Amino acid sequence: MLNRISDKNNNISFGIRIKLSDKGLLNLPQKTDILYSSSPLDFFYKEPKSKKKLDAFSIKIKDRIRKEQAKPDNSNLKKKVLRKSFNAANKLRAIASKILVFENIRSFYNSFRLIRKMTPASPQYIEEWAKIGNSVQDKFIDMNIESGRIEKIAKSGQAHIFLMNHDNPERDKFIYPIFNSFLNYAYTAFGKQNNCPRPNIVVSKNVLKLVNKKYRNIYLKMGLIPVDADMTSKNVDKNVVPVKYLIAKFIDHKCNLFIFPEGNNSIYKNKTLKEKFQPGIAKIIKNILNNKDSIRIVPLGLSYNDVKNSMGSIYIGDTIVLKNVDNEIFYTKDAKEKISLGNINNRTITANIVKLLSSKLEDSVISSKINV
User: What is the value of pTM for the model shown?
Assistant: First the structure.
């Protein structure tokens, strides 16, 4: 059993199992027909065991390779062997994707046809996102929906950046769509399908290399933005085009950004989240604040347990508001207290933003952990 936290009024609270279809538990002005509709995209949550094993084995190999690549004593022969091993691991992931498609061939092609005829600007796009998980009746998550934070985000209609830790690549890819489905259901309940921010998730470009063209089209249509996952300063130029595109959309409130700020650093299990947190996200925030007075950031702490049918745990942290006032960046701690992070043009501002965000995300990760 999970240890559950409940209040005296028996309201829904963190630690209670929430089915993927339990969006009706949100505190919204109305329930929509979407609650009783399903999406063919639910086949993503019906992975066969053989695919899971191949994915896990491939990721294990790639983690080992990256650790070896980080060592200073790599000879040319070793580099060649590691590169070939990395390609072999990618082929395993590609085979795993084909297994998923084969096992769910009808749902896959229904998803492809659905996505092909939709545009992200259409209200149907948000409604289809809201349906995800409705037909997966045996799966559940733990999420602090009693906090009312999903409803507050949806009602505001403003674009947000969602930061997520990246401890488990095999399972992280599922938990983002679950949260986004709840959020998009809230948008529909508030009647914001036409103008609410569309989801964009920043992912490693390797993700799209591992799947066939039809699969790739589904991913891209659902908002995946491929970048070089090593978002350090020396590689930032590789991501200029996609990052500029995202920043422009975000400034116009046209998209929410979902980001794993650890990137490829997630393989270093012996390091803390703060040590793995890359500066790329701080540079994106600085760029946005050069063109916008304020920005809203939400830390989503993710964790997992071994309970049967559990998809994991999501803790939605308090919204962090950063404001640019005469080129000085302030963090609004509460309604009264504002803390300066420094001048936007100073070198220290990047480090200060990283320190603040990594600390807040770490707090949400700790809060997400459920005792089994």
Answer: 0.83
